[in-house]
Amino acid sequence: VLRNGDDDIEFISTDGVVGTLKINSGEMNIFDGFHRKTANQLVLLKNPEIQFNWKLAITNFTEQKAQDYMVQINKQTPMKKEYIRTLDKSKLENLVVDLMIDNPIFELSDKIKVTDKELKFGGYTKKEILSLAISEIYGDILTTKMQAQKIAKWLVDFFNYISQWFDKDNYTTHKYIFYSYISLSRKVFEKEEWQNIIDSIISSFDFSNSNSEITFLSHLSGNLNKVTKEKLYNIFKEVEE
Length: 241
Prior knowledge:
The chain is about 45% helix and about 5% strand. It has 10 helices and 4 strands. Helix 5 (about 115-120) links the parallel strand 3 and strand 4.
């Protein structure tokens, strides 16, 4: 909680160590806990009456000390590089993905995961894939946080619309097809009739296992090279400028 003059914090305790922390107002920088937050949302949707307590450690660190702490934890229990990359909020593409996931109207919030293991539990794609695609496809206009907010809002609208065609039994939800979706989203970005354009493209595209043009998706793994990504970026027919 940042001491910015607007904070209103109470610590109710008898011994000054254990007690109740009430944050009535203020600003918090949370560098860990996203999965717990998501878990809370999903559980409450299933059972609003559930009673459960998370253990929460609160430290009085400066931003630099918090970063140093994360580095130290990483030395003790190394974190995967793909996870570390998604934590870097100085990268605007990561900010875009976080803004998308945190948008309450985003239909795919619980379908975007961090690791491949998580994809086995109802996930469609990874934050790393979306971030990289956004960086490469929107990089020329993604230069400010305000622009990041605009792009995030657009992508929420875009994915919410195309999700009507998603089917876990074909390639519409393959993790690597999301490179193609990001590319398609840029082609119709700020076009007035974008939904009509999407209708004609997605509804006529064959996402089944019998389409030899996209079966190569099943053989992809790890970090993709430039040639493969270009193939994915151009998987849908061109949209007229």
